[in-house]
Amino acid sequence: MKRPRITDIRATTVTVPLEAPLRHSNGAHWGRFVRTIVEVETDVGIIGLGEMGGGGESAEAAFRALKSYLVGHDPFELENLRFMICNPTASLYNNRTQMHAAIEFACLDIMGKFLGVPVCDILGGKMRDAVPFASYMFFRLANKDTGEGETRTADQLIEQTLALKKKCGFTSHKLKSGVFPPDYELEVFRAWAKALGPDSVRYDPNAAFSVEEAIRFARGIEDLNNDYYEDPTWGLNGMRRVRENTTMPLATNTVVVNFEQLAANILNPAVDVILLDTTFWGGIRPCVKAAGVCETFQLGIAVHSSGELGVQLATMLHLGAVLPNLVFHADAHYHQLTDDIIIGGPMRYENGAIKVPTAPGLGVELDRNRLGQYADLHKTLGGYSYDRDPSRPGWFSVVPNTRWADPSDDRVVDY
Ligand SMILES: [Mg+2]
């Protein structure tokens, strides 16, 4: 049988609206996600799909520039692909880990389509048919067009979470935080956790706190049903000091995002739960490898979300399907989106979980109409600055942060 060879690569930037702007400790998603959809073509007529966060002309040009590396390559040769695109010493000059991830997704998609099997079968076979997710709640600015969707008070957060729980069936809930003063967030988080009854919760201020503030905050929430305490402070050493002063497991998607850091964390533990991101780690397979290391050393794992449309979500589902040690619910921003670019999408939550696609490859296909529609929307709106807050012009965060947003500010701002 003739093996496929890569013939071309194409990248398309799309912008898909969110229900409302999502706030975090470093800034905001300004009412939309910008994503790059990658298509890798082969000489057997199969097209593999990939996705990366961000986009625009420079991202599209960067993918086009990889064409000379990829043409003629056998998509089954994934280890050679890794060294070709992101050899760790060459990467000092060209950090292409995230681009490699998008191409790895596409190659796995091609392999699955070529063999007629879903990607999870190539990764070791699925341990579960659906991947459970946590609700992923944010402090939100109001939608500028409708004036609705604001999340600022405990009452708003509770109402929105209970409505989502009813719709999607979530039993674990995450609050992205680090936006308002810690005492205010403590009050909101406690009221929220109480309103959610027996469901578990997780608090993630994106490393905004000083070590001392993180320890103080931990003492205020330790009695709740916490899955873990996610990135309360910055750095392995800071996390280690917090860990020595709390009973909660600590989780991270910021200070252990590669094998070097994973090794450091095993030799001198600072974090208990490693949140595996198919983009940050450079693909689905690096996440599976890292999960194996965590299994060996009995560290916890979960599936991280750095924002996703249906292609990236499929990578998270195939990853979540094959991990024997996945005991925490995965994260996804997905329910914050108003639409997707895949045929039949958006994918649906049932009982808090999303089914692992069963069609060959990643199991998702592009809806060309919507891809075009949201590529046009990107051309109209352009990008946005993830590290800026549209409600606070001139503001930027520091580490540790002390420049909190005002919880009494209920303006509807333009963005
Ligand atoms: Mg996080």
UniProtKB/TrEMBL annotation:
Cited Gene3D superfamilies: Enolase-like C-terminal domain, Enolase-like, N-terminal domain
Assigned EC number: 4.2.1.40
UniProt KW keywords: Plasmid
Database matches in InterPro entries: DgoD-like, Enolase-like_C_sf, Enolase-like_N, Enolase_C-like, Mandelate_racemase_C, Mandelate_racemase_N_dom
Reactions mediated catalytically: D-glucarate = 5-dehydro-4-deoxy-D-glucarate + H2O
Pathway: Carbohydrate acid metabolism; D-glucarate degradation; 2,5-dioxopentanoate from D-glucarate: step 1/2
Pfam families: MR_MLE_C (PF13378), MR_MLE_N (PF02746)
GO molecular function: glucarate dehydratase activity
Mandelate racemase/muconate lactonizing enzyme C-terminal domain ranges (all copies): 154-249
Enzyme class, first EC level, given as a word: lyase
PANTHER family xrefs: D-GALACTONATE DEHYDRATASE-RELATED, GLUCARATE DEHYDRATASE
Name of the protein this chain belongs to: glucarate dehydratase
